[in-house]
From TrEMBL:
Enzyme class label: oxidoreductase
Limits of the Plastocyanin-like domain: 66-175
UniProt-recorded Gene Ontology molecular function terms: copper ion binding; nitrite reductase (NO-forming) activity
Record has NAD as a keyword: no
Family statement drawn from the similarity comment of this UniProt entry: Belongs to the multicopper oxidase family.
InterPro entries: Cu-oxidase-like_N (IPR011707), Cupredoxin (IPR008972), NO2-reductase_Cu (IPR001287)
UniProt subunit comment: Homotrimer.
EC number: 1.7.2.1
Cofactor entry: Cu(2+); Cu(+)
Keywords: Copper, Metal-binding, Oxidoreductase, Repeat
Catalytic activity: nitric oxide + Fe(III)-[cytochrome c] + H2O = Fe(II)-[cytochrome c] + nitrite + 2 H(+)
UniProt entry tagged with the keyword Cell inner membrane: no
The protein, known as: Copper-containing nitrite reductase
Protein's organism: Meristemomyces frigidus
């Protein structure tokens, strides 16, 4: 299992501690149950995870391009994960091993990948998930820290892939407890579309 997201800290000791934790908490993946992740579209959020044990959580994502009618006058060619913007909301638990499978169905020939800020190590998994057209790659990442994390395509040029729609959220629940229960949870992300004036006639 290759670590894969940058650690925002300039202390080498801190980084060493994180990698030591990763090694100490390594699990025999063959012993873990396997679950398919429940993926939802904004503003919906998957239900809270009630289990008290880690699993191999399978997440299937597909990079696609689709033309969307933004308004009566405006269409936009969106770059998407699973034909939606933002990409699917992913819910997991500290200790889970996320098995991400990315398939690139972008017929333009552009490469795509996943950079998830919940994954430890350089690039958040982008180096091992970069896929060319009609290619599929799978990688596994152990979740060590709770929180709400963004994921996005980090293929160059990164800002263009994000601006065109290739981003989403992953919520990693704490191992011991989650947020207090509420009547309804929502996923909200902010973004803009930049486009040319509509064609006349």
């Amino acid at each position: 299992m290759a670590p894969s997201q940058p650690v925002a800290h300039d202390s080498k000791a801190h980084v060493a501690d994180l990698y030591a934790k990763l090694e100490h908490e390594s699990l025999d993946l063959a012993e873990l149950p396997v679950e398919e992740a429940v993926l939802t579209s904004a503003p919906n959020v998957p239900p809270s995870t009630t289990r008290d044990y880690p699993v191999v959580l399978k997440v299937d994502l597909t990079a696609t391009i689709k033309k969307t009618q933004l308004t009566g006058a405006y269409k936009y060619e969106q770059w998407t994960f699973n034909d939606q913007v933002p990409g699917p909301f992913i819910r997991a638990r500290v200790g889970d091993v996320v098995e991400v499978t990315l398939t690139n169905k972008d017929e333009s020939g552009m490469p795509h990948n996943i950079d998830c800020h919940a994954f430890l190590g350089p690039g958040g998994g982008s180096a091992v998930t970069t896929t060319e057209e009609n290619q599929t790659k799978t990688a596994r990442f152990k979740l060590l820290c709770p929180g709400l994390f963004v994921y996005h395509c980090a293929a160059a040029p990164v800002p263009v892939h994000i601006a065109n729609g290739m981003f989403g959220l992953m919520y990693v629940q704490p191992a011991e407890a989650d947020l207090l229960p509420v009547d309804k949870e929502y996923c909200v992300m902010q973004s803009e579309w930049y486009h040319e004036p509509p064609e006349k006639g």
